[in-house]
Specification:
This protein is an alpha+beta fold. Among the domains are: 76 residues; 74 residues, no CATH class. Helices cover 42% and strands 17% of the residues. Strands 1-3-2 form a 3-stranded antiparallel β-sheet. Helix 1 crosses helix 3. The longest helix has 15 residues. The protein is elongated.
Amino acid sequence: MSPRVWNDPKLKVGSMVRAALWLVEEVGEGNTFTKEQLREAFPGVSQIDRRVRDLRDYGWVILTNAEDATLAAEEQRLVRIGVPVWDPAARREAAAKKPISAKEKQEILQRDDYMCVICGISGGEPYPEDSNQTAVLSVSRMEVVLPDGSRETMLATQCKRCRAGQPGEPVRMDEVLADIRALEPQDLRRLHTWITRGRRGSTPLERAWSAYRRLPHEARRAVLEELEKSFDL
């Protein structure tokens, strides 16, 4: 067992790891705890219940009254401690072995609007530089270094090309935030709009290109001929 203390403010870990340490240090195998105790231990931490449920993916056995009729409605029992998720190497190894369920894949694809989070291409869409090759999307694991230095493995939609070219190093949120802080005020406001909308705004040129790409082959030829005739290209 790691000597770390779950409520040590110097401990740079995510809420799932901190919850695991709390279960080990404050509850112990075979004992029960309530949702109220969990929320009191982690005030202000959103979805702490879900972070505890996530431990089941790492072999932790935590029962509710749905699986153990002797438990009250608010009670849960820590039956078995699984992978020591406070150990980054053990957590990464376990995450790599854990299959992504069909339900998880569908949820992530829908959340990401069926587009690659890296290049923005949609599934089945031809690559601009190679119209003979279309994008194939899949849900992949990405390791992310959070601003506090802790690491988490997250799921994201990627096309086959971006996944193959992805570097082995984790994504660093501090570098992303540094790039954002370096933006001019006008660009910063535009980025904020894109983030709140969940999509990037398109230019008139991009909208014209998108409309053109939706045309069948014969209609595209007609557009090209009209363009060359009208603008002497």
